[in-house]
Amino acid sequence: MATNEEQKLQDALxxxxxxxLQFLNEYxxxxxxxxxxxxxxxxxxxYKERFHLEFIxxxxxxxxxxxxxxxxxxxxxxxxxNSKAIVSxxxxxxxxxxxxxxxxxxxxxxxLSEEKYGLMGLNKLRILSDIKNYTSVRNExxxxxxKKVKSFNKFIFVGTLLxxxxxxxxxxxxxxxxxxxxxxxxxxxxSLFVCDYSLLARDGRSVTFSIMQxxxxxxxxxxLFYNNFITxxxxxxxxxxxxNIENYFDRIINKVLSKDPFVxxxxxxxxxxxxxxxxxFPKYNTLNFTKLNDTSNIFxxxxxxxxxxxxxxxxxxxxxxxxxxKFIIVAMAAALxxxxxxxxxxxxxxxxxxxxxxxxxxxxxxxTTLQNTVKIASLNTPDIVMDxxxxxxxxxxxxxxxxxxxxxxxxxxxxxxxxxxxxxxxxAKNIYLLGIDLALNQKTGKTHSDSHACNAHGxxxxxxxxxxxxxxxxxFSLRDDTVLVKxxxxxxxxxxxxxxxxxxxxxxxIELNKQANQNIYNLSENGAYIQDTIPTKIIxxxxxxxxxxxxxxxxxxxxxxxxxxxxxxxxxDKNNLKDEILQIDNIIEFIEKFSKIKIKSYTQFKEQxxxxxxxxxxxxxxxxxxxxxxINFDFAINRYIDYIFNDRxxxxxxxxxxxxxYIWSIHITELIKQYKSYLQRLI
Length: 683
Fold this sequence. Notes:
Strand content: 5-15%
Distance between the termini: 83 Å
Radius of gyration: 28 Å
Shape: globular
């Protein structure tokens, strides 16, 4: 029989557990249901527990007994473990993920020649020039040196174990947004008896849980955490239990790097999207997917093979040559050279690139090579490329945002994701993927097919590295760091963080757009796995269907795509732009008032920036990309400002802050006015 003290302890544990379940049912109902289901399975004997909660009398705290290994996770010294966790977590940049890209803030500007750098290069240099205005105020560079900070807004608990350290770290650091991940639901359930998780969601704080979830679910939860107070993502402080944390750090870093504002910076958004799109819209047939109806059948239920420029294109190219008439061939322009080499004629070519350099993808093609080939290009494709393409068979699409009401958003980091979404929207029934590896050549480390420009410049990844140096020195790279992911036809494949980001986009598009009758077969031998696709070996395909008459196909494609295209905005869309311009004028006026405020602290400065962002974020216009431009600007500029003033060594900073206020106000006003001028072209 339990003693009085033991009974009180049991009652307290049960009360904490019951309270936590009530909290989860209200705050994260799905997680609450999963815990309750596990509880039920344990109670009925359907699930045998591996881990057990045990009170260590000599230590005066709780440990986890691992029955499978006959061991204690805290080594029967939980108090010492928890004390170490709390003592080691401080207001410094140890155990911190910094979202700032050091290279962009530490570079010098030597040349602003458009002739030398082209559109993207020129805008990159303009960004460097913008940044220089801010870095010169305090002359502070981004480095990996440990510095003491004033506060953290985002905190990540990597693993929970019993979570006894969590409330004390919360009380010490006082962050406002928390992410809690744990790979074992049984261990998390035990923590509910001894840790009050509701503390993480009190007094204006918020918490996001990811407990024993697959990569897609984890990524979605991490996105929620990231987007909650999106302007507070400069430094991510974390504490790791270092117990069964799997590849959590890789996945967290992937997410942070995927938001790199210099992959596609705010000036590129202005120049290559807003400027070129508004200039090109009246010139070409632009797709409007709202014109599709239930009976639309543009591809006539024929099989489509979508070609990328991944390494597996080299492996399957001869087979494709022999069977090209069995498929409607849809190829991204990056694969065109390989197709020309093997005398394969694509039925549809797609391109997405604001750089003049994209013209290299069409080198080696003659006027007859792409005859009777439909071209689908982004509206921000440069004129030098558009002029190469036959206007009769050229169709364009909008990127990032649509000027047309309810027209689906075509986003994605590369042409691959965008083309894939177009195929889903156009109701392609059977899609075969080849060269959509999203992984490296597993032997050579090459990122693309032999004919791709990347390989011509000698770009390949060292796949023999056992550990990324970036994990050792706290510098990370989207393009050069490698990660191990689930493979398509083999168990695991090596890929880059950038490719892994693309995998997430493919997964997202499938989840949101794939219809039940659409089948996607992935033929890439060494490619990454894409969810809800069917891994298929080329040798297993039975192509027992008739050849396609490509001449008739071309006529049909042009006619059907013309039917769902427009060349001018409707009245409702033009009125929407007029309303947006009025809102922009109000924002400019608000910024002008902000520029004259006597700033007395960085906290006041930050509050004003947040208010400006709120006004932009909640603009009524469905077509505006101003929020995206501002967020990108925030990631590039405001984060740096936050970094230099979030420093315990910074004293008497009002003079510098006023200088920043002046520069910032002029800078953002110039960008917004520029954006407004582009909209006015369409009215």
